[in-house]
Amino acid sequence: MGIDIHHTHTVEVGYDEFCGALAARDLQPLWKIARQLMPEVPLPTTQAWLWKWDDVLPLAKRAGELITLERGGDRRVLALANPGLKGLPFTSTTLWGALQYLGPHESAPAHRHTPSAIRFVLTGSGVYTTVNGDACDMEPGDLILTPIWNWHDHNNRSDEPMVWFDGLDLPLLTTLESIFFENHPDQLQPVEGNNLSEQGFAGVGLREMGASSPVAHSPLLRYRRGETERTLEALHRARGGALVSLEYVNPLTGGPAVSTFACEMHRLYPGTRTPTKRKTGSSVYVVFQGSGRSVINGVRFDWGPGDIFVTPSWAGVDHEAYERADLFAISDRPVLQALHLYREEELTEGQEISGTFVPLKGATSAADSSRNEH
Amino acid sequence: MGIDIHHTHTVEVGYDEFCGALAARDLQPLWKIARQLMPEVPLPTTQAWLWKWDDVLPLAKRAGELITLERGGDRRVLALANPGLKGLPFTSTTLWGALQYLGPHESAPAHRHTPSAIRFVLTGSGVYTTVNGDACDMEPGDLILTPIWNWHDHNNRSDEPMVWFDGLDLPLLTTLESIFFENHPDQLQPVEGNNLSEQGFAGVGLREMGASSPVAHSPLLRYRRGETERTLEALHRARGGALVSLEYVNPLTGGPAVSTFACEMHRLYPGTRTPTKRKTGSSVYVVFQGSGRSVINGVRFDWGPGDIFVTPSWAGVDHEAYERADLFAISDRPVLQALHLYREEELTEGQEISGTFVPLKGATSAADSSRNEH
Amino acid sequence: MGIDIHHTHTVEVGYDEFCGALAARDLQPLWKIARQLMPEVPLPTTQAWLWKWDDVLPLAKRAGELITLERGGDRRVLALANPGLKGLPFTSTTLWGALQYLGPHESAPAHRHTPSAIRFVLTGSGVYTTVNGDACDMEPGDLILTPIWNWHDHNNRSDEPMVWFDGLDLPLLTTLESIFFENHPDQLQPVEGNNLSEQGFAGVGLREMGASSPVAHSPLLRYRRGETERTLEALHRARGGALVSLEYVNPLTGGPAVSTFACEMHRLYPGTRTPTKRKTGSSVYVVFQGSGRSVINGVRFDWGPGDIFVTPSWAGVDHEAYERADLFAISDRPVLQALHLYREEELTEGQEISGTFVPLKGATSAADSSRNEH
Amino acid sequence: MGIDIHHTHTVEVGYDEFCGALAARDLQPLWKIARQLMPEVPLPTTQAWLWKWDDVLPLAKRAGELITLERGGDRRVLALANPGLKGLPFTSTTLWGALQYLGPHESAPAHRHTPSAIRFVLTGSGVYTTVNGDACDMEPGDLILTPIWNWHDHNNRSDEPMVWFDGLDLPLLTTLESIFFENHPDQLQPVEGNNLSEQGFAGVGLREMGASSPVAHSPLLRYRRGETERTLEALHRARGGALVSLEYVNPLTGGPAVSTFACEMHRLYPGTRTPTKRKTGSSVYVVFQGSGRSVINGVRFDWGPGDIFVTPSWAGVDHEAYERADLFAISDRPVLQALHLYREEELTEGQEISGTFVPLKGATSAADSSRNEH
Predict the structure, then answer these.
(1) What percent of chain C has a predicted confidence (pLDDT) above 90?
(2) What is the mean pLDDT of chain B?
(3) Farthest CA pair distance, chain D
(4) Which of A283, D110, D291, D345: disulfide with D153, CB 3.0–4.6 Å?
């Protein structure tokens, strides 16, 4: 029995009634929405946005007093919710950025999930994250991976809180409807050793014979700040210019540290504005040190240490440092590249600055609007 | 200048005021939403749903009368809008399914876009789709690719309309903010030849020396029904059983025909219910011929020729044919596999049937609710 | 304890004595042999050569009478021994070409080895080769794989002998010192079915869902002449010209049918001489039907059905058919490509013919020399 | 016109005459040579062998006096010629090992070739090798790549000679008939900078954004001894045991530094004999420091700084250090792995020592035989 086009009659309805009939049958006419669905260039819902350290930190501290870390409230995390995403707690359509606050002598219990996470340490000391039994020390400027389906818990042995940036692919995995989560049977997982993942990776271009990588992520779980520093300096000596950029990669394959987003570090030198570029996909930038400004689609975003901002797909972006600045960033580029969707271009002319970023909500409040002016 | 945690004070606010302050600063507390964001197994917003041919066809015919194909209304397409997706014209969070109706002697003008599309022909004859100059004939049961950024237009030379199923990765590319679109300078692009893409692929396991594939999709643009038929029969002879399944692949690489979703054909033989399986990611099934029923998470969906249904991520799914049936399907599996997120499992026991699908909207209307009962 | 350059004295010997001292210590001075070791272009030891069917066939028949197929003399094979290779039974430095003769109702016992073999059937019928339990029928023009470490035996159920061409990577594996061999515990291995490997590969661009390939070779073990014929005709219709060429590939990956050498079919149409090309690596050509001539480095080689010839690395080669001709060929190209050593070029001018091939040994014998003149 | 088996008659000759007829037609009967061609396990022609530093160094020094480096005698190289290879200047069937001696203030002129070379520095200082414009400094323990078709020249600015180990794939490329060679138009190529290749590779797991690798080899051309030392120490701390082994890899892909052979460093700690292993393919070991012995197929080879030895395919091999020892090695493993021919196994029992290595030629001479006894 095959498809028959002749056994039903056309319904003799007018256009309005016709549209109602479509809606009643869960159908939508493409011709009314085609231009919005298929714009000539990406029309992101992600908005360019910036969160100030001085706004977020007091709230993170307060959360440290108000919220305890126990089962049911595992992590003290403030998600950076992009105003363009209609109330979703996502920083862009693919990326989750957040600040996590771990108080003195606190532990965040062990669990695992299919979303991959990275932790970029902003402040504090004496903390370790255990990843599948490997207790990885965390110090400012370090990058720690807690990749797909790896058990992880966080432990602060010091008298000071730690604050780090959380980067996850959670929004993408929500769209892909692929999120699994599991609590560890114990509050904390057993520790097999300290910084084990680093043992095989002491020299550039050298690897233990017979070493092989997990398929979905780097075997190296801690990328120390010192290595980053050394690489940035070498690149600057070699290349010069206003900007050097590096990517954190799987040392056994050269691929991204995690499969679903890139981790990058950009060092800006003062005095020069970088060329305006645009690319498909979004990025979340975390200012680790220094200050400067970025222009995103003509709007100026000033930033200093601890500030975080997001650039949407195909936005024109340039940067200028007021003093030497390090911007850690995550980006969905590896996904776009895997699907042959990545495009980038450099504009022949720099963009004009047509305004300065003021958060929409803040515009109605003197107290709020002031937060973008220091 | 680095990050300083000590220069601001904790804000001394109560919990409710604290939550308000978070919202005002575009922050969201993870602890309130963690279980919803990170469920133990996927919690899809995509709903299992079914669109009946007898409901959609009369409206498609009526659209043929009401809507003309001119610039600004390029395609006469009825999108299958999943009720779980809050008004978005998407069939699942990653996949677009639609019916396209091309009237006698009509042409749909030439354009290109980064979303990849496939066309699976349901009824009609004498139509061709030109893809980058290659006029590909379309007959029922054929699969035609119009992949990423390939110029394409559709042309009906016959006195009968054609209806085909459109499958696109449009929802995924919307999330990835990677949609580019361009109209061709001419209404129709020039034709360089007919069915050119098939010329190099006449024999299994043989290819022209020196042939190489585009990176993002198959060089073969038309997969004829006859080849599918021949393969299904050979597989059934070899494997037996209630179900044989094949995938349309790039003959030069063995990869999926397009990068972003799989195209599959499933032939069901009557008399046996297939085991219940679940997998991450969604699928859209198009009944090409035959009738039967599928059970999705315990709900029974009866289907016949031309019906289309969608299965959400991690749903338990089994099928049973009343007569031999061919189900064409698209699935986001290649994306999940590329990102190491694909999981599948077969349940040890078949699922019980707890209800029969009735469209929600239809429940309020006798006329509508009747449409699922023939 | 490290390397010390100062604790020994230079030996005060003259040049001749010095050279003798080198030889006595298994050392060779590069400066005497550099030009020979590192020529400006490849300096093959493989010689262009041709074996006439009319010379080889009578001897193969006679071997059928003199040699029985029993353990210890498993295969009745005449190897084509290139005169440039100093008595080694190899057709080129990487490829083994041979004729195998299987008499009526004979069986060649089961064994396996790491050298991969292909069998291209020249004449006969009613034979099957069992490969890991799969009894693959063999008819003229079929290509049968017996890949690396697969059990295989050959069985002739007919009243006629069969002659096929054997292609192996045996010379390469000899250099790589990687040959393993094992006799099957039984004279013949058990048969699980007939032509099983073909069951999943009935349609172009279609594969069974979930199918995966062995890593080292194609899962398809028999490539029928009919498929080759169909592909050659389609290519000729599409491309025109004096030559169409196809490669036998793994239908699940697009890679070569076996890892270590390519299998190709070239159809020549009479009336045009092909452009002169050269490439790194050697090829062995088997004339399946038709007649013509090839010019190799200026020397003319005339050929007809059943003749076999070899082209050395970087030789200028062109072909011309007197009547439509099919040349099956094997080549070490996949190895060179994997190691980034493959080069090819087309000469801007056709090469002049400076002589006609006469086997060296034949030159001393009127009976022999005559064999290249019919 | 197809193949005809009936138009010729069997030649009525006896077995001896038959064999003569085969030879006259460049045919060889497989049945006489099958066991030798297809042994049950690899039957290498490469012999286990060892060259003593104290034997080779005086001759290298003498060569420095006798041989000048000018066009026509480009390199002062003593090749380690394996006695099993019938006079060929090859260390194994796939690998070339040699000592190169560059006198004070000498330069070896610029050329390029398809064979890839590595230089492992044994003694000396103040030398640089320019590779495609990049002047790479050479110090003891450094590994320098001069890969496929890269221009290179060697320059000694010091008052001392330098001696290094040359490793090449020359024997393999001879078999593959793929050697191209070209002299640079100038005696020395222009230098664009010093140690440029190292600039992008300062930190483990980090790479310059957008960096991509040449297809055939590592972009890193100098692997400093310091990095090797650091990695060996970290591995030893992490793993313990009698042996730690590392491989020099392409930092952008994790693949071997050159495509055609592996470069490895093995550090042995005294007091323990390693398990006996065998693998397909050959290795050439260079003792950089320390002393010990290796047992190869039951024969004991004692070694000290500067000694070089070769292990054939499938030989049982174990090592024991008398003092901490570093063995640099090259191996054809990447080729075997690419072709799916690599096998390795560890024997359950250690091998017995049945003899001590004495060079065959040396056995006839008291002076020579003594050289293996200190």
Answers:
(1) 86
(2) 93
(3) 78
(4) D110
Q: Look at residue C360 in the predicted model and tell me its pLDDT.
A: 58
CB contact under 8 A, A54 and B8: yes
Q: Is D216 near chain C, with CB under 8 Å?
A: yes
Q: How far apart are CA C2 and CA D287, in angstroms?
A: 9
Query: pLDDT class for B364, splitting at 50, 70, 90?
Result: very low
Q: Which residues of D touch A219 (CB under 8 A)?
A: none
Gap from B372 CA to chain C (nearest CA, Å):
31
Residue with tokens 């049918």: C257
Nearest to A11 among B39, B58, B178 (CB): B58
- As a whole number of angstroms, the distance between CA C182 and CA D62 comes to 51
Nearest to A351 by CA among A308, A303, A307, A315: A315
Q: Does C83 touch chain D (CB under 8 A)?
A: yes
Task: Count interface pairs A-B at CB distance under 8 A.
Answer: 343
Q: Please classify residue A139 by burial: count the beta carbons closer than 10 Å to its beta carbon, then call 0-12 exposed, 13-18 middle and 19+ buried.
A: middle
Query: Which residues of chain C lie closer than 8 angstroms to D26, CB-CB?
Result: 49, 51, 80-83, 359, 361
**Chain A residues with beta carbon closer than 8 angstroms to that of B172:** 175
Report yes or no: B228 at the C interface, CB cutoff 8 Å.
yes
Query: Cα angle vertex B235, ends B230, B236, to 5°?
Result: 100
Chain A touched by D342 (CB under 8 Å): no
B260 Ramachandran zone, left/alpha/beta (phi>0; psi -120 to 50): alpha
The answer to whether the Cβ–Cβ distance between D238 and A204 falls below 8 Å is: no
Q: Span A215-221, mean pLDDT? A: 96
Nearest CB partner across the interface for D234, out of A199, A228, A264: A199
pLDDT digits (tens, 9 = 90+) for D30-69: 998 988 999 999 999 999 999 999 999 999 999 999 988 7
3-state secondary structure D155-175: EECCCCCEEEEEEECHHHHHH
Residues of C in contact with B195 (CB under 8 A): none
Asked if B237 and C196 come within 8 Å (Cβ–Cβ), the reply is: no
Q: Is D366 on the interface with C (CB under 8 A)?
A: no
**C358 in D contact zone (CB under 8 Å):** no
Q: How far apart are CA C215 and CA B140, in angstroms?
A: 37
Q: Greatest CA separation found in chain B?
A: 78
What pTM did the predictor assign?
0.94
Report the alpha-carbon distance of residue C325 to residue A340 in Å, rounded. Answer: 42
pLDDT 10s digits, B146-184? 999 999 999 999 999 999 999 999 999 999 999 999 999
**What is the per-residue pLDDT for B365?**
36
Q: What is the pLDDT of residue A372?
A: 36
- What strands, in cross-sheet order, belong to the sheet with C49-51? B206-208, C243-248, C262-268, C325-331, C283-289, C308-311, C49-51
User: Judging by DSSP bridges, how do beta strands C325-331 and C283-289 pair with one another?
Assistant: antiparallel
Confidence of residue D72 (pLDDT cuts 50, 70, 90): low
| Count of Cβ atoms closer than 10 Å to residue D345 Cβ | 11
> Around Cβ C186, how many Cβ atoms within 10 Å?
11
D329 touches chain A (CB under 8 A): no
| D114-145 pLDDT, tens digit each | 999 999 999 999 999 999 999 999 999 999 99
User: What pLDDT was estimated at residue C73?
Assistant: 66
pLDDT tens digits, one per residue of A254-305:
999 999 999 999 999 999 999 999 999 999 999 999 999 999 999 999 999 9
Residues C201, B201: C-beta atoms closer than 8 Å: no
